[in-house]
């Protein structure tokens, strides 16, 4: 299983300048390549016969432009306008071309329906003012971790890293990230040993009903209180935002205020992620099986509950649950989005029709059981999860069409410390 391990990096002022140059070179190569392929795409020259194109699969940038790297990196370095490209390792810039290619492919595939899920916009030009800057160093760049535990990146130097844990295996690449609040991170992709994290089996399973008044209600009747970090931090955020809007555009004071706003946002996100890690850790450790709902977060986020929905961050919680159960050899199932978890009586299975949100308690007309709305939903999620699990255990497990692609497209979970 692939995981991302992320550590804080503390660059010196000189290293910050050199890192900014690497980010800049990467950006220039990206933009140069994009400005070249955009007109080409518009005139449709390279695409040829549309029928042929469909038969041969989606349009790819790299195989059609074997010399793109040569033109945009090697040759460009010799010209006075692009002489500064010498400040970045070649591999980082080549990686940029591959990233751009992947972005085009994702866009093309989502247009033709090869890629499921939300539509992917075409790649955009990058700007110095973008929120996040990043550069990926691959093996060919010969980056390393020194004997004094520093991260040696070519053209930047030996960076001090706050190692908070050991890497489970040798990483294949490292990405240096500068986030919107001005913090630097080293992000390693590592292959984890599937056997290392498997826990001895236990019994017990848990159904989780996610909600707004309480973050989650579990099938055993206990609940996780809603932390509402964002609401609490909102006052502070508003103040920072006001300060920012008073600063003159383009001034360095405005930049400083912008970073303060970004920091306030980052603190909220960090606290939320910690909260999710703690609870998913506990739930997947104590139970052999964990069941959750599939939430239509996108749909809910459009309603007037939007702020609370984003605040809760359910999608992240469910994603953590999923990868932790897989990693630990536990079972996991997501109950279908249309499963009426709040309408069924968990005691007798009677389907009682939809109930408005303000109804917190109801009794089953069939068996007279008094239900707490959310607890009942948690029990239903558990029952349905058990059913799904039993069904998948008896059915032959053949991954459906596109299963491998979906696996690839799934985000690599980040273990940030
Ligand atoms: Zn009943």
UniProtKB/TrEMBL annotation:
Biased composition (Low complexity): 390-402
Keyword DNA-binding attached: yes
Protein name: RNA-guided endonuclease TnpB family protein
Segments forming domain Transposase putative helix-turn-helix: 1-38
Ranges of biased composition (kind: Basic residues): 235-251
Residue ranges of every copy of the Cas12f1-like TNB domain listed in the record: 314-381
GO molecular function, one term: endonuclease activity
Location of the region described as Disordered in the Swiss-Prot/TrEMBL record: 106-133, 235-258, 389-417
Organism: Streptomyces luteolus
The Probable transposase IS891/IS1136/IS1341 domain, residue ranges: 206-302
Highest taxon of the lineage: Bacteria
InterPro entries, A to Z: Cas12f1-like_TNB (IPR010095), Transposase (IPR001959), Transposase_put_HTH (IPR021027)
Keywords tagged on the record: DNA recombination, DNA-binding, Endonuclease, Hydrolase, Metal-binding, Nuclease, Transposition, Zinc
Similarity comment text for this entry: In the C-terminal section; belongs to the transposase 35 family.
């Amino acid at each position: 299983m692939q995981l991302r391990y992320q550590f804080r990096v503390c660059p010196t002022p000189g290293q910050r300048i050199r890192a900014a140059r690497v980010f800049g070179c990467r950006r220039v190569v990206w933009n140069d390549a994009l400005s070249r392929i955009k007109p080409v795409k518009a005139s449709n020259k390279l695409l040829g016969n549309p029928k042929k194109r469909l038969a041969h699969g989606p349009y790819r940038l790299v195989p059609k432009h074997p010399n793109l790297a040569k033109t945009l990196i090697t040759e460009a370095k010799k010209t006075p306008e692009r002489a500064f490209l010498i400040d970045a390792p070649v591999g980082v810039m080549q990686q940029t071309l591959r990233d751009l290619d992947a972005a085009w492919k994702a866009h093309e595939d989502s247009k033709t329906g090869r890629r499921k899920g939300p539509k992917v916009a075409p790649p955009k030009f990058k700007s110095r003012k973008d929120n996040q800057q990043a550069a990926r160093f691959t093996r060919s760049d010969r980056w390393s971790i020194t004997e004094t535990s520093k991260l040696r990146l070519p053209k930047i130097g030996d960076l001090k890293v706050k190692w908070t844990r050991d890497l489970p295996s040798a990483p294949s690449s490292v990405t240096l990230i500068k986030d919107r609040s001005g913090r630097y991170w080293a992000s390693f992709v590592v292959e984890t040993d599937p056997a290392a994290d498997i826990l001895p089996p236990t019994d017990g399973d848990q159904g989780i009903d996610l909600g707004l008044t309480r973050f989650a209600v579990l099938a055993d009747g206990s609940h996780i209180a809603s932390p509402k970090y964002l609401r609490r931090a909102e006052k502070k955020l508003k103040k920072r935002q006001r300060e920012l809007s008073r600063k003159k555009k383009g001034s360095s004071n405005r930049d400083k205020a912008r970073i303060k706003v970004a920091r306030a946002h980052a603190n909220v996100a960090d606290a939320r992620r910690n909260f999710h890690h703690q609870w998913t850790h506990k739930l997947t450790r104590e139970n052999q099986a964990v069941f959750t709902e599939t939430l239509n977060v996108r749909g809910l986020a459009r309603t007037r509950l939007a702020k609370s929905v984003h605040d809760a961050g359910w999608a992240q919680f469910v994603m953590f649950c999923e990868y932790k159960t897989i990693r630990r050899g536990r079972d996991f199932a997501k109950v279908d989005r249309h499963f009426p978890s709040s309408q069924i009586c968990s005691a007798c299975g009677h389907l009682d029709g939809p109930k408005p949100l303000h109804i917190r308690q109801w009794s089953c007309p069939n068996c007279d059981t008094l239900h707490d709305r959310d607890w009942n939903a948690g029990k239903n999620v558990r029952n349905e999860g058990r059913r799904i699990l039993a069904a998948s255990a008896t059915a032959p497990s053949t991954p459906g069409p596109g299963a491998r692609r979906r696996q690839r497209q799934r985000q690599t979970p980040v273990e940030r410390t």
